Amino acid sequence: MSFLTATSNIAIDERVSRTPWYRTALRRPELGSLIGAIAVFIVFAVADTTGQFASLQGAAGWTDFAAPVGIVAIFVALLMISGEFDLSSGVIVGTSGLFAGLLVTQLSWPLWPAIIATLLLGAVIGFVNGVLVVRTALPSFVVTLGTFFVLKGANLAITKGITGTVRVSGIEQAAGFESARTIFATTIPIGGASFQISLVWWIVLTAVATILLTRTAFGNWIFASGGDAGAARNAGVPVTRTKITLFVMTSMAASLVGIMFLLRLRGMQAGQGVGQEFYYIIAAAVGGCLLTGGAGSAIGASIGALIMGFAAVGIPYALWDQDWVSTFLGVILFSAVFINVTLSRRARGGRST
Amino acid sequence: MFSKPLAAAAIGATALLAALTGCSGSGDAAGTAPGPAPSAEDIKICVYTHGDGGTFWSVVKKGAEDAASSYGVSLDYQGSTNDSSRQASTIEAGISGGCDAIAASAPDPGAITDAMQHAADEGIPTVTVNSGSDEFADLGAFTHVGQDEIVAGREAGTEFTEIGATKVLCVIHEAANSGLLDRCSGAAETFDGEVVELNADQALADLTAAEAKVRAALEADPDIDGVFAVSADVATGSVLPAIAAVGREIEVGTVDLSSDALAAISADEIAFAIDQQQYAQGHLTVELLYLAAHDAIELGGGLPMYTGPALVTTDNIDAVQASVDAGTR
To answer: Does residue A326 lie within any of the structural domains?
Structure first.
């Protein structure tokens, strides 16, 4: 057959044809979410009553809401690519803030050692999550849900038991408060608007995670573990080590956010962070992470978090009824994921996945 | 470092965003010193609470909306559902978004200190609402509108003593809500007997599960002869059925009103309800902020303005009934 068609095919052999650049771009998981973000931005910019949504002031607002979600969502995305969920990531934010706050107010620790200890606590919780998932071979959804409930109860019981109230406050008296604040919770004036420093952390961590995912062997291991753990193991990928490392990174990111909140809010409520884990997963899904693992991106998760920031500022600026926020968020998220999936399907030539 | 298509897309998106940003109208939104009296249509009043849109807060919101429409000002009401960081970010975004006056509830004053200070620096008049009566001055607010949860609790404690209870179970339907804990502590201060707390977290989401918890607590301790349910919905939905199942004589007191709670008061199933008159918390707040933004009048004399507690029993229930049905109480 081949030599009958050979003469007409000499010029272009489809096996080596070049894909147009826009097709390659559309296949990237984050481009769909970028287009979704632009669409949401345009909707809110048009509905804006204040004139500030599409300005630096507005940008300071959306990034203020988006950064704490984005910082953790990046690592939740990496974890999802490797095929695992972490439902305890939200409550760890609260646990970390409360832990640091209690060390500082009850045991009179200076702030910097408390911060180090809290990051270590985050690492330990992540390690426990990872080892439990890997050793018991239970779905990570179930294991981390257990961790979530354990920590949720502990946050409340320990705080109430030690302080008699449901919050830790008064940390500004601690030594090192001002210096810690400048690293974790200060504002940066840019062109007349005050941006939170969490934005810088978010951008840096997105870059680090993206490089990790796309340019290192570890990144390959993440994709391999999520795509087919058995095959990956047979090919020599250290699946167990990869997953445990990712759980540790996710928990430490949540601890970082807990420390940022503690310093900015000068205290922490016992219920902080509960419920946020779903926003992290949604941000990752909007950004192109498959819930089944094996595909996704860290930039996409950051874009997903940015979309939530747009909504958090855009809805009040449009003077829309706040009661509809959840409904609107659901519509936006469904649309963003739908756009993402449709575009990548068409880019691949119309076949699913 | 990145592939060409992604770089092109990123540049394109950035250019688009830059164009949209550059094309926006005025630069800094927040003014400095207040100018001559703005007309009512230009005034934007912002009320940022920690509320959750439930039966209590929806009445506050209605009060605020009614006052805003009678003055002809625009209102931005946002409830952060007990998330202090969200509330702080909302206040900051509101300052950038052109709020002429801001009200914030302060169950956790430390969390919103920076944001409220920023508002004060921009010359925006502020009040605290619902919680924060001790700290409003430190936050830069000129007054506080509300009723202290501790005060509400004290009223309940006194009332329980008067109706003859000796041991009261305090049912908390939102475990991490400091305001609810204050209600129980306030009751413990003035009540002649002992107050025991029950953690019925998420009760509003599952009243039947809460009923089981209350019933278990009542059966475990036969000395309990009073229940203080700090939510009217929990009182009617969980506590009354639990008491009926246990079959003892138990007095019930609650906080805030609902149509069912009033019916229960008429039927003598609930002894009393502490009414914060939270409609006034919304209404009075907007009035005070309007006068501050429009006429530079700051009322209160540096002291908090209380909207309650009012006590609702079988004696005065008829007057209250119509308002509750209309959603204004």
So the answer is: yes
Domain that holds residue A264: 25-346
Burial class (CB in 10 A: 0-12, 13-18, 19+), A170: middle
Q: What is the ipTM of this complex?
A: 0.86
| Cross-chain residue pair B29–A264, CB shorter than 8 Å | no
For A153, residues 6+ apart whose C-beta sits below 8 A from its C-beta are none
Domain annotation covers residue B315: no
* Helices first, then strands: H and E counts in chain A: 15, 4
User: How far apart are the C-alpha atoms of B132 and B149, rounded to whole Å?
Assistant: 10
Q: Please report how many Cα atoms fall inside a 13 Å half-sphere around the Cα of residue A350, on the Cβ side.
A: 0
Over residues B195-249, the pLDDT tens digits come to 999 988 888 888 889 999 999 999 999 999 999 998 888 899 999 999 999 888 8
Segment among A162-166, B33-37, B48-52, B118-122 with least mean pLDDT: B33-37
The minimal CB distance from A57 to the residues B28, B76, B88 is found for B28
Q: Which of A30, A265, A322 is opposite residue B85, by nearest beta carbon?
A: A265
- Together in a domain, B271 and B124: no
Interface test with B, best of A27, A50, A190 (most B CBs within 10 A): A50
Does residue B256 share a domain with residue B154?
Answer: yes
Quickly tell me which residue has 């001790």 as its tokens: B134
With tokens 């409520």, the residue in question is A269
What range defines the domain where residue B290 resides?
A: 40-147+278-307
- Distant-in-sequence, close-in-space partners of A29: CB < 8 Å, separation ≥ 6: A287, A288, A289, A295, A296, A297, A300, A340, A344
Same domain, B142 and B290: yes
Q: Are residues B162 and B249 in the same domain?
A: yes
Is A169 inside a domain boundary? yes
Exposed, middle or buried, A172 (CB in 10 Å: 0-12/13-18/19+)?
middle
CATH number at residue A85: 1.10.3470
